[in-house]
Write a structure and sequence with these properties.
Blueprint lengths: L8 E11 L2 H11 L3 E6 L2 E5 L9 E5 L4 E9 L2 H14 L2 E5 L8 E5 L5 E5 L31 E9 L2 H12 L2 E7 L5 E7 L7 E5 L8 E7 L4 H12 L4 E7 L6 E6 L5 E5 L14 E3 L18 H4 L11
Parallel strand pairs: 1-4, 5-8, 9-12, 10-17, 13-16
Antiparallel strand pairs: 1-5, 2-3, 3-4, 6-7, 7-8, 9-13, 10-11, 11-12, 14-15, 15-16
């Protein structure tokens, strides 16, 4: 008998990354990707893209090394939040409640089996643009910035896991994520999986850590919506002294146009030139890539990804360099 779907998690709300070069990281997101700084607290800077409706979607916190601070998910209701908290506590992965932070109210924190810190919340602050940033396009929170090549909204996060299957099962069984696509090894074990709670192909992806480490970050992603912007930002990146790791190109998995670059603090950032495809079928059957099909899974067109792409994550390990 098919289990009733869990519909208690609505979307990715924000993520926090660590940076040993705080101001340089802030400058990258502000001047290259056109994001706005909307607050500071302690050693953290809060930022947003111009079509993010919430107060902030990115937190950059100064730290000795790069990596993931936490990932935040918004529940579908206050009642849904309580249900998921009960399920998380039952799983033994709970940390506990926090009062809130800039941009949101109380949140319950927990970890994945691999140690990635996450939180789930309901109460959020919506962005209110100052008068000089208001736009007559009423369904856009603010004017399009005039610096860099501005990203429009957050899209997803990709984390590395020592054991992909265990983490996928946690997201499915405790939080209600659906596996949209996956890459399987010859023995049918999970190599990577793309999961979502929304119509996006993935709100989160997990890849098996090639170094066997736990709890590392592979990349965060922001969305353009237009493939041309990948070419535009590529020019800006190169002229500003940044090295593009891969792209522009197109993935087979997700069908998304992409570009990858490492920001000054050391974290990998993916930029999506279009949304790939969206899923509206409630009975969606997971797409499985294996064997000969893998040739087109990662790269549909464009140059192959460098070997460092599959090994480099943050925190950085000394034997793997970009």
């Amino acid at each position: 008998m098919t289990k009733e779907p869990i519909l208690d998690v609505a979307q990715l709300a924000h993520f926090e990354i660590y940076s040993p070069k705080l101001e340089e990281s802030v400058g990258f997101f502000k001047n290259i990707l056109g994001m706005d700084e909307v607050g500071r607290k302690g050693n953290s800077v809060y930022m947003r893209a111009y079509e993010d409706h919430y107060h902030n979607t990115l937190i950059i916190t100064e730290n000795d090394e790069a990596g993931l601070g936490h990932v935040a998910w918004r529940a579908t209701s206050p009642q849904a939040l309580e249900r998921r908290v009960a399920a998380i506590e039952k799983s033994g992965r709970g940390i506990g409640w926090i009062d809130g932070d800039i941009g949101h109210g109380r949140a319950y924190q927990f970890t994945t089996p691999d140690g990635h810190k996450m939180e789930i919340l309901w109460d959020v602050d919506y962005y209110e643009a100052p008068e000089d940033q208001k736009t007559p396009l009423l369904n856009r929170p603010q004017k399009r910035p005039s610096r860099g090549v501005p990203v429009r909204r957050l899209d997803h996060i990709n984390v590395l896991a020592s054991e992909t299957k265990k983490n996928v099962e946690f997201l499915e069984e405790v939080l209600g994520f659906k596996v949209r696509e996956r890459i399987l090894a010859d023995d049918n074990s999970d190599v990577a999986a793309w999961l979502s709670v929304s119509s996006l192909v993935h709100d989160i992806a997990l890849m098996t850590d090639a170094l066997g480490e736990s709890g590392r970050l592979h990349h965060i992603c922001y969305w353009y919506g237009f493939p041309q912007h990948l070419s535009d930002v590529a020019d800006l990146l190169i002229e500003s002294g940044y090295e593009i790791e891969a792209g522009p190109g197109k993935h087979g998995v997700t069908q998304a146009a992409f570009l990858y670059v490492v920001e000054p603090g050391g974290n990998r950032v993916e930029l999506f030139g279009d949304p790939g495809y969206q899923i509206f079928d409630p009975a969606w059957k997971t797409i499985e890539w294996k064997g000969k099909d893998l040739e087109k899974a990662i790269i549909w067109h464009g140059s192959n990804l460098p070997q460092e792409f599959f090994k480099y994550g943050t925190p950085v390990k000394s034997d793997v360099l970009v």
